[in-house]
Amino acid sequence: MKCPSCFSLNADSDTECVFCHSPLRRRAATTPEWAYLFVVLCGAIPVISLGGAIPAVIGGGGAGLCLTVARAHSWSKGLRMFLCLGITVVAWFLFVAMISAVMRLR
Ligand SMILES: [Zn+2]
After folding, report:
1. How much distance in Å is there from the Cα of 33 to the middle of ligand 1?
2. CA 7 – ligand 1 centroid, Å
3. 18-70 pLDDT, tens digit each
4. From ligand 1's centre to the CA of 23, what distance in Å?
5. Could you tell me which residues come within 8 angstroms of residue 1 by beta carbon, excluding any fewer than 6 positions away?
6. What CA–CA distance (Å, rounded) separates 106 from 98?
7. Predicted pLDDT at 24
């Protein structure tokens, strides 16, 4: 990664710059690319339902949760991907359950 002070290139594992010894910020808040897959999958719920408050809450909540979990870099990548998958599955399950409940009412 690049040093923010002297712009020299350091190894990804370095915690401080080898040239000017300024601390290198860990990429803790960055979002891994695979997280957007789950965000899109959750975000598709209100799109498919053509709006509505409940699908918006399910989709938005699921997408937000996936982003939060994906950014929790203290957890292993495998665990975070598994949790995001679980969140997405639960979000879609809630959506399908809601649709079938609405259909039963009609
Ligand atoms: Zn430096």
Report:
1. 27
2. 6
3. 889 888 876 556 888 999 999 999 999 999 888 789 999 999 999 999 999 99
4. 8
5. 9, 10, 12, 14, 24, 27
6. 13
7. 81
Q: Ligand 1 centroid vs 41 CA: distance in angstroms? A: 40
- Centre of ligand 1 from the C-alpha of residue 74, in Å: 25
- 48 C-alpha to ligand 1 centroid (Å): 49
Determine phi and psi for 23, rounding to 5 degrees.
Answer: -65, 140
Residue 22's pLDDT is: 86
Confidence band of 74 (pLDDT split at 50, 70, 90): confident
